[in-house]
Sequence to fold (311 residues):
Amino acid sequence: MSWFSRAVAVVGLVIVAWVLVTELPAVVHGHPAYAVVLLVTVLACLGTLWRHRRVRPWVTGWWRRTLSIALTVLAVLGLAVVAWSRPHSAEEPALTAMESDAQVTVDESLTRIVMEPTGGASGTGVFFQPGAKVDARAYAAVLRPLAEAGYPVVIVKQPMSIAPLALGAFDGVQDDFPEITSWIVGGHSLGGVMASMTADDHDSDATSPVRGLLLYASYPNGDLSDSLTADVLSISGSNDGLATPSDIEDSEAKLPSDSEFLVIKGGVHAFFGDYGPQGGDGTPDISHDDARTQISDASVAFAEQVEADAR
Fold:
């Protein structure tokens, strides 16, 4: 197995190099978990190459052979996860939207991005979960108008850029922003699925409850039609190839009857952030700028509605 172990180690180093060459900004600005995984992968691959620098005889004993094969299989699966988890880096205008100015202060940490109004802030805040494998900064441009309108925005950075690994992040945000008395939780794609779970869990909190659920090209995993008390706005794209129009239509029965549904005509899945084209997505019939404006305007109007209902 020495030759195969060396081959796996070389492939691992190639995968890490590919990730860093193609998506370094997303690695640098993402949750540190992925960077740690890449570092561990490099060390493990180098260690394997050093250990197998000379051809060794086939190990004897059935348990040793079984262990050797099992470790090799786990290594291959681990490298597959590392490759699959390669994130999509944010692009303009999201990068410009990350800059502070007279209206909005932007603070980026290892685990979140916070956009706060420089003037009087609303008592309603927005907590947002990115889509799978998407740089959290990619949502800065579409969400910044909420901050400009007076609503503090918190975009969570997910470990490995996977929303289920950040499911408990909202609890920490509630504690860190005690001045916010009600929340809108939202998310894109898989992030929206997790946001719907968060909304259902926290819509009856005694303090700073979730009053609104904002879904971008997303839908709940389970039936929330009878349990969820928060207002709901679902925004989708008519040309989305991932969260398809039929998926969104089917989700209507899983949400409260008074939920609102807005379809961006000609919009696609990747238009809810700024991270480039996405595999499996549809073909747009509208400009990204136009779609982004419609999504932002609808989100601000929804926040105003939620805030008014909370009074």
About this structure: The two ends are 68 Å apart (CA to CA). Residues 2-84 form one domain. Strands lie at 104-108, 112-117, 124-129, 153-156, 182-188, 210-216, 231-237, 260-264. Residues 2-29 form the longest helix (28 residues).
